[in-house]
Give the backbone structure.
Amino acid sequence: MRKIGKQTIMLDSLPYILETSSIVGPKEAEGPLAKYFDQCLEDEFWGEKSWEKAESKIIKENVNLVIAKSGIPSTSIDYSFAGDLLNQCISSCFGLRETNIPFFGVFGACSTFVESMCLGSIFIDAGAAKNVLCATSSHFCSAEKQFRFPLELGNQRPQSAQWTVTGSGAAILSNTDLGKNCPQITYLTPGKIIDMGIKDANNMGAAMAPAALDTLITHLQDTGRKPSYYDAIITGDLGYVGKEILTEMSETKGYNIKNNYNDCGVLIFDRETQDTHSGGSGCGCVGSVFSGYFYKMLKGHKINRVLLIATGALMNSTSSQQGESIPSIAHAISIENLN
């Protein structure tokens, strides 16, 4: 494991993504990727008394599911890295409190899933762990209540607004693939905090796109790769607005990503029939779309090289009320089939 270029880490042991799992809510179940998710819920509460309790149940059950799918006992998982959007990461803390696995609470806003995979990969590469669990979640109703307006008010959402995904993604990283020919993590490019002064919490794509650009260009320069090296360059939740901005900004910097770039927030909903405006967002967006869709594409060798860039807006309800701008971040991992 060594640092190359400005901020990229080249891994030596190349951790395997041994298994993934995903659970999503009812709106996501009506979207174009529904068949790729492990479980689709019929209602937002899932038998619980509050949206927050439902989100905690979603990540809890998804963690149990990925462990079961992996074929390794929970006692063989050395550490867990998990986070969400709620204050004090309560969904992850409450959801994983019965696992009896040493726990690292992670917060990178909507970039948390990839941030957890970065940290887990470093633990494995350093020999500090053989197997680690990475998980995250989000819930439309709990996120709206915390960051914007109570749903009961029925506020009209502008076209630049995104729909927080109700769902969870989970992955188990390992120093062995148990003969399953799993994709491996080759490079990590942690992001820097980028703040372009945008204050509109209903235009998160515009706020986060510059951070995605910075990490993308840094990764390409550090590794010496071109965008065409990857079968897919995927951002976490820029949505339609942010995707267009990133595409245009990349081109002005001399990088053409039009042929192989897409965004999880664009893919998870049908814009025409589901009225999600600029697309999906939230920790569960990149988590569920990668765990449900892209991992299966990698395992089936329909794609072999993916650059996954998860973006996050590092703000909370208090900072918005105080008139602060929205600092953003983007973390990237290179995932490749090497067998």
